[in-house]
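user: Here is a favour to ask of a fellow structure person. I have my own habits and do not want them to colour yours. Could you put it straight underneath, so I can go through it closely?

assistant:
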Amino acid sequence: MLEIKDLHASVNGKEILKGLSLTIRDGEIHALMGQNGAGKSTLSNVIVGNPAYEVTQGVITFNGKNLLEMKPEERSHEGIFLSFQQPVEIPGVSMVNFMRAALNAKRKYLGMEPMPGGEFLKTMREKRATVAMDSKLASRSVNEGFSGGEKKRNEIFQMAMLEPKFSILDETDSGLDVDALRIVAEGFNKLRTKETSALVITHYQRLLDYIKPDIVHVLIDGRIVKTGGPELATDIERRGFDWIRQEAGL
């Protein structure tokens, strides 16, 4: 599904990613762990096409297509979704209008007719129930006045509506209490299929107790220096990252 080869990327003239390579296949859940400044969020921003980040070397292909040649909205329409660390508020734009515009833009890109209003509202109700989202939140402006947990749940609701092929959860556990984390993770797990994949970016194992990854990677100084199974996250929780730095000679 997603293949990254020798990726180098900079922001404001400073190189952050320094030769990162990663392959994620259909149906796989990968976790990316690392300390602050390692380049985790830079990677997610590069994948979705944030113009503030400059790719200076390397290749990213998504289902056989050159991702770096696509505009951000094209990447979204192709099936890439990013759940932000800090979801933004959009005052004056209702969730209903926001989601209908986003969904129909994707349908237009795929050569489909706009979804009829009645069908859209029915779909919205069904997806809202999947992630246990309060109906009152869906009628308000996007994220306006939402708590941290409500914003993150709203992100998973948007993912449910858009049905992406590949999702990036960028520190979705940040700022969540245990109950909110469990609810958000359960919503994500309900949306998993054999055809969809995800990259879960986190500092801690606690999110991975709910979202079970197939493969865990450690990112240090812009490169993946260690890859293993779920037990690697347990080792990091117990021992930190210094032993990995030493093992990699950093």
Remarks:
- The CA atoms of residues 60 and 69 lie 9 Å apart.
- The two ends are 31 Å apart (CA to CA).
- The mean pLDDT is 89.
- The chain has nine helices and twelve strands.
